[in-house]
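PROTEIN DATA CARD
Card holder: Cytochrome P450
Chain length: 405
Origin: Streptomyces corynorhini
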Amino acid sequence: MPETAVPTFPLSRASGCPFDPPPRYATLREEEPVSPIRLWNGQVAWLLTRYADQRAVLADPRFSADVTRPGHPAQSAGVQARRAPDRLPFIAQDDPEHNHQRRMFTAHFTVRRVAAMKPRIQEIIDRLLDRMEAAGPPADLVSAFALPMPSLVISELLGVPHRDHGLFQRAARTLVTLASTAEESRAAAGELADYLDHLITVKEREPADDLLSSLVAERVRTGELGREYLVENAILLLSAGHETTANMTALGTLALLHHPEQLAVVRDSDDPARVANAVEELLRYLTITHSGRRRVATEDVEIAGTVIRAGEGVVLANDAGNRDGTVFPDPDRLDIDRPEVRRHIAFGHGSHQCLGQNLARAELQLAYPALLRRFPGLRTTVPDGELRFKEDMLVYGVHELPVAW
Ligand code: HEM
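Structure generated from the sequence above:
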């Protein structure tokens, strides 16, 4: 692999538009779709920027998601520090073990299960908006709505008391902060693991009607799932379940505020299919998982004319793939009526495709219209230049979003 003049990942976003991925992606997609990048620890990996190549790799078993394999490109020192081979969550394992564990969770996230949760999700949304309205403007949309909404939903689903949200939100935040040190990440993960381990003990004694209780009864007691794996997967669900949707809620609202005509459609449309399409387009346009999908080759594989050797890491920039003009014409434009937008890879692709996508869709489809209807005059109170965008986190978004109405 070439070693000279290799750019450092992440590449700079400085393009003037906070919703656009690094401008260099466009040139790379055209000229060097498989290009070397240097990671935080000096490791050189391959950056893939084309949609078709990314889908091919994500569906190819010769690329491993096992984070303990030599060459797997970790996102940060903190992420690397958490690589314990004896208790990996299924997102970090390969089939057949990945599939064996994932299957135990899928039944809880089907379209039908999520449809049954919708009235409760709507109630949570309405209650948060009531509170925000009663407190009056101004408000920080992130802390008043975007973060507590998915956090309450996933806590209820798992059976995690939301009164403990201070603990799990703080720890989850440490885990997604790129600058967290190995010690900080280990401590945060340890705190979460102790907390969930204790909670599982409570569920063993007094089962309730929630996901953790049912997994304890049906999978842990039967010996099918080790208790330590339930703890790790619960951490995965708890953090993936609120960080991502929270960022989509706040950043998506900001993107709509920049496109008032499209915002009016999301607010006023009584066609759920049109709102659903708008959500897909926001997912594509914003692709908040900007640190890329990470894999390591287990054999030599040729992609777009470049041979990736066994043991070399790849970073699949799905934010670049979702702006690939050969798949999405005029890709840098937000168009909530864009046809065939569900082909986007904001939820990944292949066997690791997001387990919570039905839930995330339901939350966003309910949240944007409810928020915009409640506050038809919603506006930000500071210019974009003063907002703190999450370039320092594994998942993109805004740290705060000061609004009034
Ligand atoms: C996997 C994005 C919401 C749970 C993934 C992956 C992406 C993603 C890109 C693929 C990871 C890979 O290939 O390495 C998102 C986005 C969300 C969201 C953009 C919200 C807008 C959620 C929610 C949950 C969740 C609400 C919780 C229930 C998971 C899990 C995996 C995953 C468990 C691992 C799946 C596997 O490895 O088989 N997500 N996600 N996600 N997501 Fe999400």
